[in-house]
């Protein structure tokens, strides 16, 4: 008998697993975890990552310290929760901007860059947590943070691949063609392209990685006021010009 038919030859109805109902206890835990992240982000604004305190989280929840450790066991675990939350929020902002953009690679690159800038300006403490000075004694666990932490990079790789596919023969001028990329670097880039499901070559990926890391750098220079007071006053104008230069690298003219 065919596995897809009954004994009478009629198609079977596919079996689907019945989802387990979410219990009140699970719902309560989820609400508490969301509140822990909210309180942790408030602490970031008030005292920075170095001042995070699980005891203060417990006080904000109205719990004794021993009770809150059932939800978050250490300062490092709290940091990880906040990093995942920040990466996810930043990536959601980028995805929202890309949803509003056309399919033109340059417009998509600009939308990605501008949404990163706007998010960083709106959330400087969370940007600092992601891209500022590392917190002493803490190493973010890649198995927990990579999924959300690489979403923006995946979008950048896809934009670069689309730009490369659409470029004519002369469009590569000034986009880094001829730059030496070692076999080890090519292998790493190819592995990431495969990981993100992006069809492209290593040189387009190198342009994307260079643009992304440059964006992080120029946004940080603005958020941390590293260019001085005069530049800070027109910082967003400077960022606009720098973004155009990076678009030229990735997209061409």
UniProtKB/TrEMBL annotation:
Composition bias type Low complexity, residue spans: 1-26
Signal peptide: none
Protein name from the UniProt record: TetR family transcriptional regulator
Domain HTH tetR-type as annotated: residue spans: 30-90
Keyword Transcription: yes
Residue numbers spanned by region Disordered: 1-30
Molecular function GO terms recorded: DNA-binding transcription factor activity; transcription cis-regulatory region binding
Originating species: Brachybacterium alimentarium
DNA-binding region location: 53-72
UniProt keyword DNA-binding, yes or no: yes
Superkingdom: Bacteria
